């Protein structure tokens, strides 16, 4: 067992310096593959620390926004290069801290690097339009200005990609940043901040304060000098943040949960559909906001799809994400494991048939990790809790439908609208799906969990505050439009 004295302590990053929290308290960040392994000690900060970070970000604002986009972009390229040099270290930290497999962690880190380079390039692209004035002697155009200080509050499931897809556009458009990463992944976040520091970003432009959401997160959201808040996480937290931001007139952006459906049409390529359902639903232990969780299958192929799915799920190897033989790692925390297990109990209680899994995985000495079997429920009906609430774990609910129309009606009959997919060869079915599916991301013959950094990403209904992140859509949140009228 690791002793606490051997464990590295990670600090807050405020005004270009690594500092302890004002009350000097630390917490352990533990490895979900083995709860006895402490990955690092992280600061448990207070409102006072947030105040210092916001003051630093505010002081840095004027100079940072006065740089050209190209100059700010150069810093993003340097951060990307620093992350690239430390790719293995960052990915291993992520796997040890939150459990996803090493190849997934590497892929995510590479994604983070690409996002930085994409937004570095955005610093040279157009930010406004010329609009003909009714006065022939005047020039009228729009330009974009930064919001000021942006608060970033991020979850643990993509601990590199999400902080970066928020910070990179914030920075390129001239904002300064105070980030509170999820405590469950705060060591991984510290590694990104180390890269930002190595890149020589000016003092105060990026600040990180770690600690609980209820203390540090709340302090950021309520701070009168934080001009915009970008949040990704659960609906319960998002709603609170949105209300608090609205009450003081701050701009906010919320990306939240999903209950993403896949529809398997009668004419689908069943092998492809099974692969997409397994990968979409169970990769990252189902802990993706875009993870597949409801599987609507047309009656004529229901049994053969189910059989193929079952065959494939039995092959899944569970274990420590650091081992190359592992396909699926643990849940990220004990809390998360307990939530998943309680939903499995609910499913059984509601009368769904447990087809596979449904319990903790403790084989091969895994009892010190937060492992659960991939779980498949059969005979699910759409009003069951397991078909309506986000589980955020490796649980699939199979629902039999007679027609595509019925599948679409049921797929939409849920409060979320993040991502959805369909497997079919019929163009008419594809068009109905594109037109009728209420989701921010609709994918055909491809799994629900696929996001490209250059395209807008975000949900409908309760999944989002109806804004979009990533690609060129990010400019809408991170800037304000100024309309300029010039008469010589
Ligand atoms: P969460 O519990 O809502 O936490 C998200 C972040 O908010 C964490 O940093 C958390 O701090 C902080 N927080 C908690 N309470 C707060 C408060 N009162 N005020 C301000 N901040 C507060 O979500 P999670 O469990 O980390 O992440 C899983 C959720 O994220 C799922 O619902 C998933 O669907 C969603 N998600 C959505 C997307 C998307 O783009 N749509 C992407 C990924 C994940 P702590 O350190 O204390 O937890
Ligand atoms: Mg952990």
Automatic annotation (TrEMBL):
The keyword Oxidoreductase applies. GO terms for molecular function: oxidoreductase activity, acting on the aldehyde or oxo group of donors, NAD or NADP as acceptor. It comes from the Bacteria. Keywords: Oxidoreductase. The active site is at residue 255. CDD domains: ALDH_KGSADH-YcbD. The keyword Oxidoreductase applies. Residues 18-484 form the Aldehyde dehydrogenase domain. Pfam families: Aldedh. Belongs to the aldehyde dehydrogenase family. This is Aldehyde dehydrogenase family protein. It comes from Bacillus salipaludis.
